[in-house]
């Protein structure tokens, strides 16, 4: 390599190779930086996974819901019977859900809200005009969201506390 370098320098001169060597070194460094950047990008993308939660988060569990549950009419449900059934089987999450739906039915029956399955709980809270009811209903809505959508397991003692709050609500 040294002999080839000497021959080329004797033919072309020393300054030409020094400048081209600097340019080549800079281009090689630039290429290496870009290559390392792409490798880091793909490694991080692989670690995060396609849902962005391979290592750093939990995967969302799919809820097993019946299609009928999503479009049920609260005016056709026998709430005391359904709630008692869920309490007997220890399904306290569903019992809290039905307690909340029962509150929605009561509010709808008294024309304090217009029930629509497409509305959110926030929509219902906004519809309640009486300030004392609004505050209480907002708290009950929070409990329902926490238990149902948060997918938290609740024990019988917590359920009894929530049940008392739901039953104390008088629209």
Features:
171 residues, mainly alpha, 8 helices, 69% helix, 0% strand, rod-shaped
In short, what is this structure?
With 171 residues, the protein is mostly helical.
Shape, per Cα inertia axes: rod-shaped
The low-confidence runs, each spanning 5 or more residues with pLDDT under 50, are: 62-70
Mean pLDDT level: 79
- How is the biggest beta sheet arranged? none
Strand content: under 5%
Overall structural domain count: 2
| Helix content class | 55-70%
Structural class: mainly alpha
- Report, as a whole number of angstroms, the end-to-end distance: 93 Å
Count of helix runs: 8
Q: H/E element string? A: HHHHHHHH
Number of strands: 0
Radius of gyration: 33 Å
Give a written overview of the molecule.
Helices cover 69% and strands 0% of the residues. With 171 residues, the chain is mostly helical. The chain has two domains: 47 residues; 102 residues, no CATH class. About 5% of the residues have low confidence.
């Amino acid at each position: 390599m040294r002999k080839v370098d000497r021959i080329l320098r004797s033919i072309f001169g020393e300054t030409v190779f020094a400048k081209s060597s600097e340019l080549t070194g800079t281009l090689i460094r630039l290429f290496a930086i870009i290559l390392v950047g792409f490798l880091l990008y793909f490694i991080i993308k692989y670690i995060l996974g396609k849902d962005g939660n391979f290592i750093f988060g939990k995967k969302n569990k799919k809820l097993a819901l019946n299609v009928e549950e999503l479009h049920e009419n609260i005016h056709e449900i026998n709430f005391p019977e359904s709630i008692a059934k869920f309490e007997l089987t220890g399904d306290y999450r569903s019992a809290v859900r039905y307690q909340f739906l029962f509150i929605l039915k009561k509010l709808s029956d008294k024309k304090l809200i217009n029930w629509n399955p497409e509305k959110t709980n926030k929509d219902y809270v906004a519809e309640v005009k009486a300030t004392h009811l609004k505050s209480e209903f907002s708290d009950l809505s929070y409990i329902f969201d926490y238990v149902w959508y948060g997918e938290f397991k609740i024990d019988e003692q917590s359920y009894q506390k929530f049940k008392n709050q739901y039953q104390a609500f008088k629209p």
